[in-house]
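[audit] Reproducing an earlier prediction to check determinism. Same input, same settings, fresh worker. If the tokens differ from the archived copy the diff job will pick it up downstream; this log only records the rerun itself.
[audit] input (281 residues):
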Amino acid sequence: MENTVQHPNQFFENPRNQALLQQRAGDRLHLLKVRNARTYRNVQTTDGRYLRDNVLVRMARLTHATPADLAQLRDVGVTAVVDLRLPNEAAAAPDLRLPGWQYVPAPTASDKVTPGMPLPELFDYLKDHDDALDQMRNGYRGIVADPEQQASLRAAINAVLTTPGATAFHCSMGKDRTGVFAALMLSVAGVDRHFIDADYMYSNVSGAAHIQALRQKFADWGGDARMQNQIDYLASTSTAYLDAMFDWVRNNYGDAAGFVADGLGFGHDGVIALRHKLIAE
């Protein structure tokens, strides 16, 4: 099964994906102390319409955000922040907030073994396990399949629907849980899967220095090539992970809109309302 995982460099070698890479780079928010921040501008749906500019903002945690970072989020229209981290993560590194923002906890867990674990603990685990790929696939699937995490997705979508402005959403690194929620919202809006994949895979570009630093730490600790391969699975994004999530959604509800309507209980009218919020008239 490992040959189904596409290396980030292979993904962006495709000429079409090269163009999408440039588009995602252009939508980066240059925040000083918030990683992996970007919005969506001039994004077309498959029926020829466009997302509302800046209606969704994806990023990593706001723990170390500067006043200028928070002001920039306010200036692009953010009025709600959805925190996809688990309660212990949010308590250990709480978000900084602006007055008037709606703050919505929506805890999800994309995997049990993460590159955010204490290094000795992660090193000891990977010495004896080769299941990082399965951990990632199962974790992504669990976000949409697990009833407790479905409740969190419901809370996140309610925030998108009810806040008067834009919704910012994040996990710790803005990569996995953030990537799943972004993919679901874009899919419901009717954005092409090629764009969804490129948006998701861009986290490997914005997180390249972090991934390399983690690899170096493992090398310094004596991690061999097998362990380096495992850490790559955990620290990088791969369309194989999104495939696991979308396959579950398709097998159980047909598509992302069906999942939101029937799996999360928003119904047909809720999907229409969500599309109205996300898509420009």
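[audit] rerun output stored. Observation attached for the diff report: The longest helix spans residues 147-162.
[audit] end
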